[in-house]
Design goal:
Layout (H helix, E strand, L loop, with lengths): L4 H7 L2 E7 L3 H9 L3 E4 L4 E7 L8
Antiparallel strand pairs: 1-3, 2-3
Length: 58
Amino acid sequence: MPGSAAGLARCCSRLFGTLLAENLPMQRLCRRRGFALHFGSGGEVTAELALASGPRPA
């Protein structure tokens, strides 16, 4: 099921995104949704979310 939640659950354990450091509304949104934010040099912020590891679909 490529592109579906079931397909995502089979192959991915984390979700990453890159934000601009000045994009504070997006940082707040990511935090509210459970993402951990990692601040790097160069004006970028990496948002990381560990995906739930439940039973694998058949």
